[in-house]
Structures are given as C-alpha cells and as structure tokens.
Amino acid sequence: MPPKAPPKKNLSALKRVRQAEKRRMRNRAMKTAIKTIAKKVEAAVANKDRDEAQRTLREAMKLISKAASKGILHRNTASRKISRLSKITDTLLKSEAA
C-alpha cells in the first residue's frame, strides 16, 4: 500500500475524504454480499438442491443488478456474473429434468 498522504486542511477536502470513506465502505459491503450470495448459489448447485439454487439465484440477480445500477459494478461485469450463475443453475435443472 502506498504511504498515506498528509492530512488535508481545507474543509471541502475534509468533507470529500469523509464521503469517499463512506462510499468505499458501502461499496465494499455490497461487493462482499455479492460474493457471498454467489457462493450460496454454487453450494446449492453442488448439493443438487433445486429450490434453494433457484431462490438464491433470484436473490443474487437482484443484488448484482442493483450494484450495477448504482455504479458499484460495471454493467458488463454484472451481466457476466449473472450469466455464469444462471448457467451453472441451468445445468442442475436440465440434469434433473432428463
């Protein structure tokens, strides 16, 4: 990590520092939640739990879409994550249907 910059002196700079820290924490929490729900989807697929996989996939899609709309994730990244989770869930559903 680079060394910290010396503390700012003017009020607007101090406020921007506070705002940036708040946003960073909020964004980090959202990204962590997305990773957690993605792992839950993968675990449900691994356990061949169809209902749980579908439920967590819907929840994950909602969370990822919300992050993309707020600018936490790029829209292409969000789309890719949703696509990959949908793909693994579909393999479970198709294998059960056959």
Overall morphology: elongated
Which strand-content bin applies to the residues? under 5%
Order of helices and strands: HHH
Poorly predicted regions are none
Q: What is the CA–CA distance across the termini? A: 52 Å
Approximate helicity band: over 70%
Structural class of the secondary elements?
mainly alpha
CATH superfamily: Ribosomal protein S20
Summed up, the helix count is 3
CATH topology: Methane Monooxygenase Hydroxylase, Chain G, domain 1
Instruction: Please write the CATH class name.
Output: Mainly Alpha
Number of domains: 1
Number of strands: 0
Mean pLDDT: 93
Calculate Rg over CA atoms: 19 Å
Q: Which CATH-level-2 architecture?
A: Up-down Bundle
* Main sheet summary: none
Give structural notes:
About 80% of the residues lie in helices and about 0% in strands. The chain is mainly α and about 100 residues long. It has a single domain (about 10-95), classed as Ribosomal protein S20 (Methane Monooxygenase Hydroxylase, Chain G, domain 1). Helix 1 (about 10-45) runs antiparallel to helix 2, helix 1 runs parallel beside helix 3 and helix 2 packs antiparallel against helix 3. The longest helix is centred in the first third of the chain and has 36 residues, at about 10-45. The termini are far apart. The relative contact order is 0.12. The mean pLDDT is about 95.
